[in-house]
Structure formats: structure tokens, C-alpha cells
Design goal:
alpha/beta; TIM Barrel; 8 helices
């Protein structure tokens, strides 16, 4: 077991993430579900809110599959991915089949700010998600939650949510929101040294094979990749557009070859 003062990487590479999880296991933590969580035990809830990239989430899920089960919260109402599409659903199913739990990432801002409306909307989204992933949805995570939601202690749509006090304010809570552990790295927290219960939230978009100094570059890379995917899909569904893309690619390759030609 590593000592509390051991020097470990504090970055955001896949290696760093693997070491982070291993340190929790070495310290005697047990990764549990929200239903199993006991704040008096050495328990950790490992949670991922998928705001942008499902493929990045799968990368993390594969790392974890060797030793822990985690929670992956997916958005139903987002412009960044579509879990009903063939490719995105395949990713979600792979994450599920690795033994991880799929939960609802609920964007309450898309609905009227009334308790009855949010209850009905969350129930509706959970039912849809359950039909898509063929599994019960037992937990909800709010997307960019308002302060009123952070203070809500009751269940939502009959399901536990990640900001209930017993998971959030009553225990140590660590998040890499905005690409940094702004309130201290999990391994540096007093709760970790005391082997106290914790909830660990990460966003897969921030974790990469190699170090990326400018974290916002990761958003640009994702958007570039998404744009390329949409162009390919457009070409597959519209022959004239496919011809235009082929002509543009040919022109680009020709320009590149001319740029590299020697002067005569």
C-alpha cells in the first residue's frame, strides 16, 4: 500500500487515471453503487458524466473494467451525441457489457423550473433510457445543476440522484469539472488519508493517452471529429454531397502534392 505521502502522477493521462483507481484499491476502498454506498465504510462511488464524447467514455470504461465497476451518466437531450444512433448505441452497450452501470444525465434546464414538471420529465427520460439500454436506470446525475437542485435531498422520479447529501455534502466529493481538480486531487484529500467514504466524479473528455497542456484543445478535437462524422453521414445519404466531398478531397490532395514539389 502506498503511503499518504507517496509521489504519484497528478495529471490527466490514461496512465494517471489507472494509477488513481489503483491507489483507491490499494488503500482498501471498495467501488460501490449508489444503492450499496455506506458513508461509514471505506467506499468510493466512481462516477462519469458524459457531457461530450461517448468514445472517450469507452476508453475510461476499458481501463476500469480490469478492477472496478463505475457509473456512466448519459444525456438524452444533447447536440453532441445520439445514443439511438447505431455507432453511439454500440458504445453505450459496450460500456454496459463491461459491467458498468448506465444512468441518466438529466439536463433540468431544458424544462420548466417546477418540481412536478422535473419529476415527470426525469421519469420520462429514465423510461426512454431503460428501453434503449435494456437495463433499469436506478440513478440520476444533474447536468450543470442549479443550486436549488444541489440542495434537493429527496429522490427524483423514484431514483437516487448524485447530489443527495448522503452522496455529496455529507461525504468527500471530488470532481474534475472544467478539466482540473479545483478543490484538490483526490489522493491529497484528508478523506482519502482517513480512508473515509468518497464520491469521485470525472468527465472522460479530459483524460487522454498523452499529456495535453491546453485542456480546451480537447474540445476542439472532439468537435473536429464530430464534424467529420457528420460530413461522412451526409455523404452516405446524399450522392451529390458525396461527389462534392470527393472533389474537395481530390483538390486538397493535389494542392498538397504541388506544395511539396521541388522548384525547377
Amino acid at each position: 500500500m502506498a503511503s499518504p505521502n507517496s509521489v504519484l502522477p497528478r495529471g490527466f493521462t490514461w496512465t494517471d487515471y489507472s494509477l488513481l483507481i489503483q491507489e483507491f484499491l490499494n488503500a482498501g476502498y471498495r467501488a460501490v453503487s449508489y444503492g450499496e454506498f455506506d458513508p461509514t465504510q471505506t467506499h468510493v462511488i466512481i462516477r462519469h458524466d458524459i457531457d461530450f464524447s461517448l468514445s472517450k467514455a469507452l476508453d475510461i470504461a476499458l481501463i476500469e473494467a480490469e478492477g472496478v465497476s463505475a457509473h456512466y451518466f448519459v444525456l438524452l437531450r444533447t447536440e453532441f451525441y445520439n445514443i439511438c444512433s447505431h455507432s453511439d448505441l454500440e458504445i453505450v452497450e459496450k460500456i454496459r457489457d463491461l459491467g458498468h452501470e448506465i444512468g441518466l444525465h438529466f439536463d433540468a434546464a431544458r424544462y420548466e423550473d417546477r418540481a412536478d414538471v422535473l419529476q415527470a420529465a426525469a421519469h420520462w427520460e429514465c423510461v426512454i433510457l431503460e428501453s434503449i439500454v435494456s437495463r433499469p436506470v436506478t440513478s440520476i446525475s444533474f447536468h450543470r445543476p442549479a443550486n436549488s437542485l444541489l440542495a434537493m435531498s429527496n429522490c427524483l422520479a423514484g431514483r437516487q440522484h448524485t447530489y443527495q447529501p448522503k452522496f455529496f455534502s455529507d461525504v468527500a466529493y471530488c470532481s474534475d469539472s472544467q478539466g482540473a481538480f479545483r478543490f484538490g486531487h483526490p489522493l491529497d484529500r484528508e478523506a482519502f488519508r482517513a480512508r473515509a467514504a468518497m464520491q469521485l466524479l470525472t468527465h472522460p473528455i479530459w483524460w487522454t493517452p498523452e499529456l495535453v497542456p491546453d485542456r480546451l484543445d480537447l474540445i476542439d478535437r472532439f468537435l473536429d471529429g464530430r464534424s467529420s462524422l457528420l460530413r461522412r453521414e451526409a455523404a452516405a445519404n446524399c450522392q451529390p454531397y458525396a461527389k462534392r466531398l470527393a472533389e474537395a478531397d481530390g483538390a486538397a490532395r493535389q494542392a498538397g502534392s504541388l506544395a511539396g514539389a521541388p522548384c525547377l
